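Q: Sequence in, structure out?
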Amino acid sequence: MSRALPKYDKRRVAFLGGAAAVALSGAVIAGSALAGETPGDDGGARTLASPGAITCPDVASRLPEIPASARAEVDRNLALLDTQIQEANKRLNDTVGQGGPNFVQNAILGPLEDKRIATVNRIATAIGRTAERPAGLDSLAACTLTP
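A: Exactly. Output:
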């Protein structure tokens, strides 16, 4: 008994295989040609509006006199506050058009406020080790989005 397919089965397999290959290659070509295009897409000539900028209250100007023993730690944390604002502004620009109506608040401003609260508390703790701990600095943690 021969293991080879009869002649008409070979032709049928070859024909169906060829038809499937043509159909798949056509689908791949059409899919890659249309990928990323939307109706009315003008090739990226339009620009998105600027998302604005994040502004935060100045912590340094609201601090009492800083003891010399705490100066290095306070300066390091003040620089960290500036870095946090820069990173939030970069994320704001990188995510233009993403998310829903509360995206900026939930994904950028909320986490930024949490980081700023922790940093401001470290500043207050550093000052409080040798002098009176400043009160009310937590109110400087909230930031806003300006157009």
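The chain has a mean pLDDT of 82.
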